[in-house]
């Protein structure tokens, strides 16, 4: 008798039981031990140290729970289709995928909870770096400048990054050679990376050695002016910079080739009536 997705879904509300129902004992034990082990570890650390901030780490529990739930339903579907499912833990599956070079769709979606991490797992290093940098930069500016202006950017960036990973996984898009690695990206932009590091050093010196002696109003004025100057400078650079010529697409190239061929035939007809 085949396994029911509905029963697997209901049992998976308790992490690991859905996998037990499917006969995947090792995988079920791994999920159950991870869920309750993490809960016990966080509570124990909070009780021993007396620091309630550890409770915030419990945010990982719903992520583990969701992963266990969808993993059980997905594996049930694979069993119903007649596939052979390996009874290995998720970490063992991740290690195997990294060694063998194939990418797990479930791990890609799980990593994409952090903007850019899913892209990096799939091999899109530069794309992932862009999403991750933009997301955390907006978060930093929102906290540093106390401006709600950047708040709307966070869900937009997160959703765009998440669904972009889903599209890459669903369409099985291969990583282009131009994507390169993170180290290659840094070497190609060595000058800009150096300027950013210098700017960060100046910012740290200003924050630690100058800010304590300034008034609150003056600090906000300097911060706002600094970020506004960067945005205005970047906007002027894009607006007044030279226009980038995009390469012609294959369709346009094909059309132009056909037109040239037709013109050549017309010339031949005129020369040889």
What does this structure look like?
- With 273 residues, the chain is mainly α.
- It has a domain at 1-102.
- Helix content is 73%, strand content 0%.
- It has 13 helices and no strands.
- α8 packs antiparallel against α9.
- The N and C termini lie far apart (79 Å).
What is this entry, summarized?
By secondary structure, the chain is mainly alpha-helical.
Stretches with pLDDT under 50, minimum 5 residues: 246-262
- β-strand number: 0
Radius of gyration over C-alpha positions, nearest whole angstrom? 27 Å
- Please identify the structural class as seen in this structure: mainly alpha
Q: Percent of residues in beta strands?
A: under 5%
- Give the overall silhouette: globular
The helical percent reads: over 70%
Largest sheet: none
Question: How are helices and strands ordered from N to C?
Answer: HHHHHHHHHHHHH
Question: What is the distance, rounded to the nearest whole angstrom, between the alpha carbons of the first and last residues?
Answer: 79 Å
Q: Give the mean pLDDT.
A: 75
Protein name: TM2 domain protein
Biased composition (Basic and acidic residues): 263-273
Keywords: Membrane, Transmembrane, Transmembrane helix
Transmembrane segments: 6-24, 36-65, 106-124, 136-160, 192-211, 218-240
């Amino acid at each position: 008798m085949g396994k029911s997705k509905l029963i697997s879904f209901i049992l998976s509300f308790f992490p690991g039981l859905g996998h037990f129902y499917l006969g995947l004992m090792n995988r079920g034990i791994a999920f159950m031990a991870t869920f309750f082990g993490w809960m016990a570890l966080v509570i124990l650390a909070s009780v021993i140290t007396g620091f309630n901030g550890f409770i915030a780490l419990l945010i990982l529990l719903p992520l583990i729970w969701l992963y266990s739930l969808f993993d059980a339903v997905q594996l049930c579907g694979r069993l119903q289709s007649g596939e052979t499912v390996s009874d290995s833990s998720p970490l063992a599956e991740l290690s195997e995928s990294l060694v063998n070079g194939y990418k797990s769709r479930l791990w890609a979606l799980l990593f994409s909870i952090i903007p850019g991490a899913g892209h990096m797992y799939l091999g899109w290093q530069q794309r992932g770096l862009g999403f991750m940098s933009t997301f955390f930069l907006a978060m930093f500016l929102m906290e540093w400048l106390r401006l709600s202006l950047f708040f709307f950017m966070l869900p937009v960036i997160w959703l765009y990054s998440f669904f972009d990973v889903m599209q890459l996984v669903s369409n099985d898009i291969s990583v282009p050679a131009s994507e390169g690695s993170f180290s290659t990206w840094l070497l190609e932009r060595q000058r800009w990376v150096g300027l950013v590091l210098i700017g960060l050093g100046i910012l740290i010196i200003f924050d630690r050695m100058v800010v304590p002696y300034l008034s609150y109003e003056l600090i906000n004025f300097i911060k706002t002016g600094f970020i506004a100057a960067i945005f205005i400078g970047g906007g002027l650079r894009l607006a007044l910079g030279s226009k980038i010529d995009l390469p012609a697409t294959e369709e346009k190239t094909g059309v132009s080739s056909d037109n040239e061929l037709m013109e050549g035939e017309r010339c031949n007809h005129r020369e040889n009536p």
